[in-house]
Design a protein that fits this description.
By secondary structure, this protein is an alpha/beta fold. It has helices at 3-15, 20-26, 35-49, 56-62, 67-76, 83-109, 115-136, 142-154, 167-173, 192-205, 219-231, 235-239, 245-261, 274-284, 305-323, 355-359; strands spanning 161-162, 176-177, 182-186, 210-214, 264-268, 288-292, 326-332, 362-368, 382-391, 397-404, 409-412.
Length: 418
C-alpha cells in the first residue's frame, strides 16, 4: 500500500479546490486502504457534496482526533501537478487488494463450490476490473461525443437491433436492441413460451440468428410448436402424430427449408449454468439468445436464493453487452397476481428477486383473457395483451394480440403505438 499517494491525494483535495472534481470523479472513500485516510476523505467529500467550505482548520474542527494527520497531509503534498500519478497509484493499490481478497475468499470456499461457480466468480472479477479500466479510459469531450453519435446515426439500423416483425412492438421498443436485456414475464400457462417461440421464428425468418436455451421443454416439444405455427395444424394432432401423409410431407418440406437457413439453434439442458450459456453463445454466435426460463438455470452455490438468481440476472445483462447480442430471459411471476381481482401483473410480481427488474431494459407481461370453458379450434382465438411495463427505449404501453394456442401462434392487432 502506498500511504504516501493517499496522503498526497488528500493534501491536494484539502488545499486546492480545482483538484476536487477530478479526484471525486476517479476515487471513492473505500479505495483508500488506510483507515485514517479513508475516514478523513469521507468527511471531506461529505462537506464537498454538501456545498460547505473546506480547509484544514474546518476539517480539524470536524475531526479533532485526526488533527496531527490532517496537518501532515497538508505539509506532505510534493506538487499538485503530479495529481494524476497519485490517483493512479491509489487505484492500482486498491485493485490489487480487491483481487487478492476475492481470490483468497475463493481459495477458502473452493472445497464447497462447483468448478463452474468458481469460474463464474473469476469471470465476475475480470468483468469488474475491465469495467474499472474502461471507466478510467472513458472520458471524452463534447466534440468526441458528437462525432460518435453522428457515426452511429449514419449506420444501418439492422446493425444495432433485431426486429421481431410485430410492428407495434418494434415501434414501442425499437426491436430487440443489441446489448440489451428484455424479460418476458407471466404466470404458467399464460403464453410466454408461445410468445418467445413466435419471436424466434419471426426473427429467424428475417435473417437473424436465434439461440433458444430450453430447460422446461425438450427441443422436440418446441419443434412441435414451431411446426404447428408454420403449417397451421392443431398442435395436439402433431403431438399425437395424428396426421395424414400429405400433412407430414408439408411439415417436412417447411422445416427442411428452415433447417437449410440454420437460423435457430436449440440448446436443451435441464439446468444449464452460466458457463455453458457463455460457451454455447461463443459457438453459435447468435444475434438473440432466449433463455426459457431463468428460474431453472443452475444457481451459484450460495445460501441466499434471491441473491443467487440476482447474480444470474446481472451476468446475463453483462453477457448481452460483452457479446453484442440481445438477451431475452423468460421469467415466472409469483402468485400475488392470483389474489387480485383484475389479475394485472406488476413489476413487483417478478419472482424471487428485484435484480431482474433492475437489469432489464424492457419488461414484457403476457396477459391472456380468461380461457376457462373456452373451446379453441379452427380459427378461434384468445385476446391477449402484451404489456410493456418497463421500457428504457420508449414509453410503457399495451399491445393487443390474438393468441391461437391450438396453433401456438400470436397475431398482432395493429394499433398505433402510444
Amino acid at each position: 500500500m502506498s500511504l504516501e499517494a493517499e496522503m498526497s491525494v488528500l493534501g491536494c483535495f484539502i488545499l486546492e479546490k480545482s483538484t476536487q472534481p477530478e479526484i471525486l470523479d476517479k476515487l471513492t472513500p473505500d479505495m483508500f486502504l488506510s483507515e485514517t485516510t479513508r475516514r478523513i476523505f469521507d468527511a471531506a467529500t461529505d462537506r464537498y457534496w454538501g456545498g460547505k467550505d473546506l480547509d484544514p482548520v474546518i476539517l480539524i474542527g470536524e475531526l479533532p482526533e485526526y488533527k496531527k494527520e490532517i496537518l501532515s497531509f497538508v505539509d506532505f503534498v510534493p506538487h499538485t501537478s503530479h495529481l494524476k500519478e497519485y490517483i493512479h497509484i491509489v487505484i492500482e493499490d486498491w485493485r490489487k487488494k480487491t483481487i487478492s481478497d476475492v481470490l483468497n475468499k475463493l481459495f477458502l470456499d473452493l472445497d464447497g463450490m462447483r468448478a463452474g461457480d468458481a469460474v463464474e466468480v473469476i469471470r465476475g472479477l475480470v468483468r469488474e476490473q475491465d469495467i474499472i479500466t474502461q471507466a478510467n479510459d472513458s472520458g471524452m469531450n463534447f466534440s468526441e461525443a458528437v462525432s460518435g453519435f453522428l457515426e452511429w446515426l449514419s449506420r444501418e439500423q439492422n446493425e444495432d437491433t433485431c426486429k421481431s416483425g410485430y410492428s407495434s412492438l418494434d415501434r414501442a421498443t425499437g426491436g430487440f436492441i443489441r446489448q440489451t436485456y428484455t424479460a418476458i414475464c407471466a404466470r404458467p400457462g399464460c403464453g410466454k413460451t408461445d410468445f418467445a417461440v413466435n419471436l424466434a421464428v419471426r426473427m429467424a425468418k428475417r435473417g437473424y440468428r436465434v439461440q433458444y436455451f430450453t430447460m422446461e421443454m425438450t427441443a422436440r416439444q418446441l419443434m412441435e410448436r414451431i411446426a404447428s405455427n408454420l403449417v397451421k395444424i392443431d398442435g395436439t394432432r402433431i403431438r399425437d402424430r395424428s396426421l395424414s401423409e400429405d400433412e407430414k410431407r408439408t411439415i417436412k418440406c417447411v422445416l427442411e427449408a428452415f433447417e437449410r437457413d440454420g437460423r435457430i439453434n436449440f440448446v436443451q439442458e435441464p439446468k444449464i449454468s452460466l458457463a455453458r450459456v457463455r460457451r454455447q453463445i461463443d459457438l453459435f454466435k447468435p444475434d438473440v439468445a432466449i433463455i426459457d426460463h431463468i428460474g431453472l438455470m443452475e444457481r451459484p452455490n450460495i445460501k441466499d436464493n434471491f441473491r443467487a438468481l440476482g447474480m444470474i440476472s446481472n451476468a446475463l445483462k453483462q453477457l448481452a453487452i460483452e457479446k453484442n447480442i440481445a438477451v431475452v430471459p423468460l421469467v415466472q411471476l409469483n402468485r400475488n397476481i392470483e389474489g387480485r381481482k383484475d389479475r394485472e401483473p406488476q413489476l413487483s410480481d417478478i419472482r424471487e428477486t428485484g435484480d431482474i427488474e433492475q437489469d432489464a431494459d424492457c419488461v414484457l407481461f403476457t396477459i391472456p383473457e380468461d380461457m376457462t370453458d373456452k373451446q379453441l379450434s379452427g380459427e378461434a382465438w384468445v385476446d391477449m395483451k402484451v404489456k410493456v411495463a418497463k421500457n428504457r427505449n420508449g414509453k410503457p404501453t399495451v399491445i393487443e394480440y390474438r393468441w391461437k394456442p391450438q396453433y401456438h401462434s400470436l397475431m398482432e392487432v395493429e394499433t398505433r403505438y402510444g
